[in-house]
Amino acid sequence: MNKIARISTLLASSILLFFGLLHLHGTFFSTDLHPQNLDLTTRLKSSHIQMDESGNLWKLWIGFNAMFSAGLIFIGSINLYLSARHFQFLSCRPFIGLLSIATNAFFVWVGYQYMISAFVLSMSAPLLLFVTGFILIAGKPRGSNEK
Fold it and tell me: pLDDT at residue 144 above 90?
């Protein structure tokens, strides 16, 4: 069971890392996240938020996407590292697993409310894998020293 839990968290972490890198690429090295309407891009570059004139909507769009990418990369990387190198540590600290589940559940909810269906699906897979791993870890006997 512990082996399945580890594989589950490794897969979930790898998926988040992959999509974080993919999103970073889409933000800076392609036009995948740009509006199809080029006129809209021009308008976004000349529109500012009320809080600060220096905050034009285009730069904010790129900035938020870049920060989201960094968040996915961080969550995926730290969980991948802990799952691969320190699974016993991870198994004994349910807070880390619960925080990963809560964060991923939030990604799914935000995706469902505001984003595209492909995003919801891409965040649902690691969520289910993290939940599976967490349940398997939580269900193992406490005296088990299995790696």
Answer: no
Report yes or no on 75 lying in a domain: yes
Give CA–CA dist 93/89, Å, rounded. 7
In whole angstroms, what separates CA 106 from the centre of its chain? Answer: 10
Q: Which of 39, 61, 40, 41 is nearest to 49 (CA)?
A: 61
| Assigned domain for 98 exists | yes
Structural domain containing residue 135: 2-139
Q: Following DSSP, what letter does each residue of 2-25 receive, concatenated?
A: HHHHHHHHHHHHHHHHHHHHHHHH
| Nearest residue to 128 (alpha-carbon basis) of 20, 16, 22, 23 | 16
Q: Is residue 60 part of a domain?
A: yes
CA distance 94 to 136: 12
56-65, pLDDT tens digit by residue? 999 999 999 9
Considering Cα of 130, then 134, then 136, then 142, what sign does the dihedral take? positive
Task: Write down how long the chain is.
Answer: 147
pLDDT in tens, 48-91: 999 988 889 999 999 999 999 999 999 999 999 999 999 999 99
* Chain-centroid distance, C-alpha 137: 21
Residue of 146 and 135 predicted with greater confidence: 135
